[in-house]
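Worked example 3 (structure in, sequence out).
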């Protein structure tokens, strides 16, 4: 099998159960199924050939009993974060989770009590809200502000008040930020750490998009901004966004503090989730060991796709404000020039454009007049999608 990636086309995903494509899932979510899906954050690209190769090889040993995370796996994770992000993770810090959303829920259960307060920064990836509310904790919203350059900035004054509240136990950071595609500046992270240390609040840093950051920006793992946060942070990572493996439900939760780790593992155990999926481990290990050349090709493709989106909006939809995407394969655009909310735009895009995007309101009220496009697909699909978006927006 060749090492080269295929970014020109992809096999039909209907019939595979894909949440993004399966007509029954589209119908349940959007009320229609004849739409081009450019919503949920998975890519219409085959994964790296080295990952497929490793999975096939594992199938040659047809025994799939209970499995625990093994040393070779941990070494692959450690080597990846050291080589890609300059972060030295110690072997005992690596904990397993069947996905980061699962980990968020488990961490909230493990590290906070009902009635405790948790700070999040909307508009933000929607499970941040659910994981707090559904577990009976109180949400404090440190809503992001938009600066003169149209980028999200943190309201540190409000954040300080919220962290100073005696009931605040946890701060959930999205780093890089989804849906804004923001790479936080080193100084932002340093200031966050300072406040969390001052008020003794644990930080959950969701770094799932860390490998998909666009030049000249660079991902900074939270503990590298200020190592004093090590004993007070949990960094959520996975190969799933970088290598398109979300269906394998495998992620790594890095917890340097022994006491936080004990609490997390106890909750994992109580929930019956201690045993990982063997195929997820095999895929992640292969991705981290052998997948860098493919990831580089992917990044080149995604950077070119991003240019395609920006050029299309500049030429065909010049009144629409796109937030500048520094990371992730998502573009976040504003509907102000149409004078409508995402609730209306969503329907018009579905009915007239035949395209499914994520409406901004799911990321909190601060996203009410925004929409999110997933541009991780072959250029021809992207061209078709952009034409559909224009048709939908023109009908507003
Ligand atoms: C910021 C962020 N965190 C977590 C996830 C999902 O993680 P998982 O599939 O591991 O639950 C996503 C998926 O889009 C995401 O954007």
């Amino acid at each position: 099998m060749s090492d080269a990636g295929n970014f020109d086309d992809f096999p039909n995903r209907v019939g595979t159960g894909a949440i993004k494509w399966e007509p029954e899932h589209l119908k349940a979510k959007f009320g229609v199924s004849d739409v081009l899906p450019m919503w949920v954050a998975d890519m219409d690209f085959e994964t790296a050939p080295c990952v497929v190769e490793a999975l096939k090889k594992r199938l040659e040993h047809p025994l799939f009993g209970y499995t625990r995370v093994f040393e070779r796996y941990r070494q692959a994770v450690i080597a990846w974060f050291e080589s890609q992000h300059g972060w030295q993770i110690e072997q005992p810090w690596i904990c397993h989770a069947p996905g980061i959303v699962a980990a968020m829920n488990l961490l909230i259960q493990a590290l906070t009590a009902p009635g405790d307060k948790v700070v999040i920064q909307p508009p933000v990836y929607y499970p941040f809200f659910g994981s707090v509310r559904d577990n009976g904790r109180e949400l404090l919203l440190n809503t992001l502000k938009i600066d003169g350059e149209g980028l999200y900035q943190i309201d540190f004054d409000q954040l300080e008040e919220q962290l100073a509240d005696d009931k605040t136990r946890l701060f959930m950071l999205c780093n890089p930020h989804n849906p804004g595609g923001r790479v936080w500046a080193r100084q932002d992270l340093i200031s966050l750490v300072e406040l969390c240390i001052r008020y003794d609040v644990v930080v959950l840093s969701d770094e799932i998009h860390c490998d998909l950051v666009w030049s000249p920006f660079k991902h900074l793992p939270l503990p590298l901004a200020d190592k004093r946060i090590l004993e007070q942070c949990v960094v959520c990572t996975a190969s799933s966004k970088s290598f398109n493996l979300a269906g394998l439900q495998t992620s790594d939760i890095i917890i340097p503090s022994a006491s936080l780790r004990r609490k997390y593992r106890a909750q994992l155990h109580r929930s019956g989730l201690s045993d990982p999926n063997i195929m997820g481990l095999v895929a992640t290990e292969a991705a981290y060991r052998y997948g860098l050349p493919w990831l580089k090709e992917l990044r080149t493709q995604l950077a070119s796709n991003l240019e395609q989106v920006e050029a299309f909006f500049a030429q065909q939809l010049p009144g629409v404000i796109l937030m500048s995407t520094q990371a992730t394969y998502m573009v976040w655009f504003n509907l102000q020039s149409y004078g409508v909310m995402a609730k209306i735009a969503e329907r018009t895009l579905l009915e007239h454009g035949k395209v499914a995007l994520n409406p901004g309101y799911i990321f909190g009220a601060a996203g009410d007049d925004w929409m999110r496009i997933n541009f991780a697909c072959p250029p021809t699909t992207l061209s078709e999608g952009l034409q559909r978006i224009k048709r939908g927006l023109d009908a507003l």
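Notes: Residues 41, 99-101, 125, 174, 178, 206, 208, 238, 240, 246, 251 surround pyridoxal-5'-phosphate (CB under 6 Å). The chain has two domains: 23-47+292-394, 65-290.
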